[in-house]
Amino acid sequence: MLAGLLTLLGCQLAGEFLQRALNLPLPGPVLGMLLLFGGLCLRGSVPKDLEAGSQRLIELLPLLLMAPAAGVFFLGAGFADQWPGFIAAVSLGTVCTLVFCGLLIRFLQRRNSRP
Amino acid sequence: MIDLFHGPLFAITLTLLAYQGAMFLYLRSGRAAILHPTISGASLIAIALILLGQDYHAYYRNIDWLTFLLGPATVALAVPLYRQLHLLRNMAGPLLITVSVGAVFASVSALLLAWLFGANQSTLLSLTTKSITTPIAITVTQDIGGITTIAVASVILTGVVGITTITWLFNKLDIQDDRLWGFCLGLAAHAIGTSRAFERSPVAGAFSSLALCLTGTFTAVFVPIAARWFF
């Protein structure tokens, strides 16, 4: 599992390096993910250690996210006027996105399956 | 005595305790979306801090090294993406078009609605990533100058709204194909949607995790570039 973690950190470091060296607008970890993905495609399989390490880390995500998420209760008075926009985006925006994507993919799928 | 509250030991103990409590509540409730561990865990932390009279920012400074692990966790998403890639084979066209157009739609609709309801620039920046999986959302938000807390909250609540409305919406639209159903849910509601899709069927779950990875990657590429143009 530690070898897997090392691979992940190595990819992230390479990603951060690329971002700085080429001044790319992408975050380093995202570049690292693309690098690892490219590497897996070239290799044609997932090493056991990497599988275990990434699985563990992905399972622990809620633990990593709880502390920043708790900040929502402590935003203070400065954020009070932002709640309507936040709630509208999260509720209406999500429903619109689901309907839009549903209609779009069904249309594309029907066109695709026609000979 | 009181100085014990101001160290990393207290912060990490509280966080792990909240995590255990949150997992217990979540599994006990039969995985109810509203009790998703991130939501219930965050609420438990907030309640504990308020009851103990502790400052949130002081607590967060003692625990922010934990969020460092979000970096390698983002990189780790390459593994499930690689595993789901074979699903693309027969439907690559429709799926890739839906991901790119749908991901832009998710960001733009959130921005437009929030702007109409009077949100300011930093709130808008924090909402652009609401439909993508949290580790990528946090990385991107920090990169473009949004507020991490708002980004996390918007991602989680988007997931909850997605899984509570999709059954009704897609019944109305008459979309029952598990592949399309799962894919749209993964696109709009990331990991929370994906866990719901797995409850429907393994096929829906696989398409949902493919959509989650593709949407996250695509949004991570286009949002920072777009943000440079507009802000």
Question: Would you give an account of this structure?
Answer:
The complex is a heterodimer of chains A (115) and B (231). Chain A has 115 residues and is mainly α. Chain A has two domains: 74 residues, no CATH class; 37 residues. Chain A contains five helices and no strands. In chain A, helix 1 crosses helix 2. The longest helix of chain A is centred in the C-terminal third of the chain and has 31 residues. Chain A is extended and about 45 Å long. The mean pLDDT of chain A is 87. Chain B is mainly α. Chain B has two domains: 67 residues, no CATH class; 156 residues, no CATH class. In chain B, 81% of the residues lie in helices and 0% in strands. Chain B has eleven helices and no strands. The longest helix of chain B is centred in the middle third of the chain and has 29 residues. The radius of gyration of chain B is 19 Å and the shape is globular.
Quick summary of this structure?
The complex is a heterodimer of chains A (115) and B (231). Chain A has 115 residues and is mostly helical.
What separation lies between the terminal Cα atoms of chain B? 48 Å
Q: How far is the N terminus from the C terminus of chain A?
A: 48 Å
What kind of assembly state do the chains in view correspond to? heterodimer
Average per-residue pLDDT of chain A, rounded, comes to 87
Number of domains of chain B: 2
Strand content of chain B: under 5%
- What is the tally of helical segments of chain B? 11
Number of helices of chain A: 5
Largest interface: A-B, 73 and 108 residues
Largest sheet geometry of chain A: none
Uncertain runs of chain B:
none
What order do the helices and strands of chain A follow?
HHHHH
Helix/strand order of chain B: HHHHHHHHHHH
Structural class by SSE content of chain B: mainly alpha
Q: What share of residues of chain A is helical? A: over 70%
Count of spatially separate domains of chain A: 2
pLDDT < 50 stretches of chain A: none
